[in-house]
Amino acid sequence: MFSLSTKKIAMKNNKIFIITGIILLLASALWFFSEIVFYVLIALVLSMIGRPIVVKLCVIQIKQFKINESVAAIITLFFMIFIFAMFFILLIPILINEAKVISSIDIQTVMQLYQEPIHNIELFLKSYNIINQDQTLVALFSEKIMKLLQLINFSDLFTTILSLAGSVLISMFAILFITFFFLKDALLFNNVIMIFTPTEYHTELKHVMISSRKLISRYFIGLLLEMLAMCILLWIGLSIIGIKNAFLIAFIGGIMVIIPYIGVLIGTAVALVFGITTALGANVNADILQIAWNILVVYGIVKLIDDFVLQPFIYSNSVKAHPLEIFLIILMAGSLAGILGMVLAIPTYTFLRILAKEFFSQLNFVKKLTEKI
To answer: Which of 55, 185, 208, 280 has its CA 20 to 30 A from that of 332?
Structure first.
């Protein structure tokens, strides 16, 4: 009896070691090929969004003609490209107009009008030795800008632009190519994963893939709804206080929500820059302090709605995890991989929790972490 129980324990331990080794090996490979993994993940998310359209199209039948999955995938892909293209077509003229407004601002006049508050800020910074006693903010900013310009090699600027454009085109082609096959075959990703998994673990892995697809799909759908809600709320708020180009600012603020927690702060900074420069372009005597305060109030109210209504639903309910748990995971992911890590933190953590529940459910801390899944 003792030897039998010992053998069972040994078998369980071996199983844990084997699975842990496979996970670590897979994680290392994913880290090494992070750029390709990024393409695949984006394509997977796009396929999750577009797959329902493919299913609907495949049901359509006109006389003897029926749309197959390949044609449905192509139509869906072109539809998604059209939606993204329309956003850019609408936004580019607004961005060009914003650039013209900023370039038309008389900086010297603005500096003269706000000479007193600038002087007060200088005194405050000097009192805490943040800047030297003989420095001025104007000189300091000019120095920083000159250093930045010196770092740029303008002779290579054209080459850099071409290289960047080439990289973007290659990335877009790769993502669209992978998305097409994910749209065409909903089980393609699962089948690829199965190839690299030992046969004895196929049943457990199928459960993992089904559960993770369900939870991660809910998360991304919720995230899209959050972005849409934030865009609408910010657009309404900024329009009420009379900010020009409210749609552009609100759109940027809504998109920034994809970065958990700090995205709203980035969106607020963009709103302040665009709102103040647009106001100064229209009227150099505009009360920029009042404009800045109005923008901060709007973003503050919308941020409260996001914190207490939208985020708890998306980050907690959709992935079945405690808000503090999610917050710590996002912080760790950000320290490891920056902004990209923060964006991918929640879906990656969700997948790992499901994986742990399926293969390591005998461990107490795993039971606690996965009890709500």
So the answer is: 208
